[in-house]
Amino acid sequence: MRRFAASVRATEAQLTALDQRVGDGDFGTNLRSGLDASVRALDQAGTVSPTATVRAGGPLRTVATVFLDGVGGTSGPLFGLLLTELALAAVGPVLDVAALRAGLTGGLAAVQRVGEARPGDKTLVDALYPACEALRVCPEQTGSRVALAHASRAAWEGARSTARLRARRGRASYVGERGRGVPDPGAVGVGLLLSSAGGVVTELPPFVTGPPPRRPD
């Protein structure tokens, strides 16, 4: 979560530029404000109970609550739902492949239930669905780092594919053909979330214009 916040801080201007072309232009700002507040909440949680037994779902639940309660636009509720499902699935001390699979799949279902988007509608579903598929075929013994690397590569492929699409859901649907050639900001946000498990992303172009740089598995 802290690396996700750092990734969004580093790429906020680029996220905003994308959203200015297909949306309200507030995606980068909303995402950053939510994650800045999330980091403060995580710091506070650590101060209140520094010796508590750590469960992987704890930080995820903290961030999910911030997004659901305090982040505007469509990004707040949707990312809040995704993180809530991840938190519910992460009942152990580590976010293993089984928890990742259950959490992302549950998050996808929750996002689709609320937004009614399908793959091909040019939304964050176009990144989240292939990430879920990548995790579905991961063997149970796969380490979480490797599983997340597979999921993030699939998510970026999905995010890049949205540049070819005309949006059928969300704010981007209002701009029609003018949105072609621009990847969906929400899908890019999913790519950032998953990639940040392996390190901070400082530039979007390598990820949204071509195959993402490979990180060690």
UniProtKB/TrEMBL annotation:
PROSITE patterns: DHAL. The keyword Kinase applies. It comes from the Bacteria. Residues 1-199 form the DhaL domain. Keywords: Kinase, Transferase. The keyword Glycoprotein does not apply. This is DAK2 domain-containing protein. It comes from Streptomyces lavenduligriseus. The lineage of its organism: Bacteria, Bacillati, Actinomycetota, Actinomycetes, Kitasatosporales.
